[in-house]
Amino acid sequence: MNSAAETPVSRSAETYDVPHGLRYGKYVKPYLPYFIFGPLLMIVEVLGEVVMPRLLAYIIDYGVNNQLEDMPGWLRVIYEWCRTSPDATNGPFVVAMAVGMGLTAIIMMIGGVGGAWFGSLASVNFAADLRADIYRKVQSFSFSNIDKFNTGSLVTRLTNDVTQLQNFVNTLLRMALRAPGMLIGALIMVIIMDAEKGTRMSLILAIAVPILAVGIALFIWQAFPRFTKMQTKVDGLNANVQESITNVRVIKSFVREDYELDKFAATNADLKQTGRSAFLVLICMSPLMSLIMNTVTLTVLWFGGQSVLAGEMTTGDLTAFITYITQVLSSLMMVTMLLMQLARAIASSKRIREVMEEESDISDADAAQPGLTVTRGDIEFRHVTFRYYKESEGKVLDDVSLTIEGGSTVGIIGSTGSGKTTLVSMIPRLYDADEGDILVDGVNVKDYSLYNLREGVGMVLQKNVLFSGTIGDNLRWGDEEADLDTVRRAAASAQADGFIMSFKDGYDSELGQGGANVSGGQKQRLCIARALLKRPKILILDDSTSAVDTATEARIRRAFREELKDTTKIIIAQRISSVREADRIIVVNEGKITGIGTHDELLETNAEYREIYESQESPASTSAPAPAAASDGKEVTVNG
Hints:
With about 650 residues, the protein is an alpha/beta fold. The chain has 23 helices and 15 strands. A six-stranded mixed β-sheet has the order 8-11-12-5-13-14. A five-stranded antiparallel β-sheet has the order 7-6-3-4-15, with no helix packed on it. The two termini are about 20 Å apart.
């Protein structure tokens, strides 16, 4: 039995083609030139760093102290060229060296600025693409997947954790070649000068560098778990802030500001304490590294000064030695900073990977007929069982079987927590059944693509959600291409056009976040209009008129009968008046269907329905119930 029309898959594949796993190469490849040119330009700066101390040494030894006996041959050519006469001063030579240093500084600046620019471009684009993929992944999650990560945690992973990776990539590109390049270059120059002068200054580095390396390793070992814990605390703070700001009206109405302030203060203090513990490692590391650097510098000055006095080394050479040794230690400090950022980046990467590798338990990857669309709106439940917690014995739905004919109007009523919302949420696959099957137009819902299935189903949920933007923008969620006349017709059917036009800007009126500047009843009618604009084959209204007066609700139901004759309408309600005109009414209790029939039939045969009716109606109306209005004439049957 397959009556669903088959059409080419359009947006479905694009909409739900989400990434799985975290593969950083994907985010590097499109910007590979930035990742290459950035470090290369930083090497230019490093070469300048290595050359500058030698030029300064030449100025001191040959330009100032006039120690010409060991001047290299290539430098003597420059020196002689700068002298205008045998008796001339060394001023022109000093100027020439200074010009060389100036040109070197300019080249270093070009390399440094260029490297920083390309590094920033690479890291920003890397983070933007990664953030987009994480957001796309989150959008593909089912309700149960989202329940696994709290909202605050997902916000932190999309923002703070991605920023940590961005900062690491930026630092990596700026220092990945610069720090080791400076370290290697300075070490080579120290060894060369050591060999030329016959000194043993490089032995000082041979002792200091391992000590520094061990210290760095200890700091990294201490820092990693602390930064991981700190990111978790950021999750808690974000969740607290989001909850309190979103529900600020409830907080104020119950005068709970002091409670929320204390709650936030405790969360904030917890984060502060964790952050203090994490950054204490950095605080201790900086002075210790500085102590080692200064100790090494003093040692070089002590032994180097003795070599200068003994005539084994010139003042310029000692200056260059100190500069090169400082560069070696500074490069180690850069590596330390890079490794500290790596510790934070690893913690953030682990949290991002958890999201990216999360398997959505609802997808259309195995859809047998992804090109199918909903055409009639026939619905069938076959022995459906569902649990929110799969290991628990309690069932939210227990062996539910029913058939709803396309175009009919069905009411669902029952006590709170009886499974009404869960039942209808399985039609567009917001949840999947643990056992049994749900069919739409004779086809298992799992055989549709998620996009095509949900495109055929319109839902107005219990929690009416509107978004920032104009009223028109919100309503066009149902149909992006709808013109104003079409939008107004849908709003009129939902009894919303009147109050919308009473606003100064009409359909261009701005809604606050979550529709904060409209009443509950207005919000419900806007959500109904949005669903109507979609023109679905199945329309589900989950207690969506609870804040609407009975007269307005009656007009909305009349609009449904007149304008949605071919649409299957499922109305979940707490009020008997909301469903009494339905073709059939389904009574649900503790996950099971306990009755089905028209209003009059259920009053006669179903004690639970009769109890609900009597609790809502006056004695007079109970003794003489009003006849049900004419229905669409469609039939609803229950199997089993």
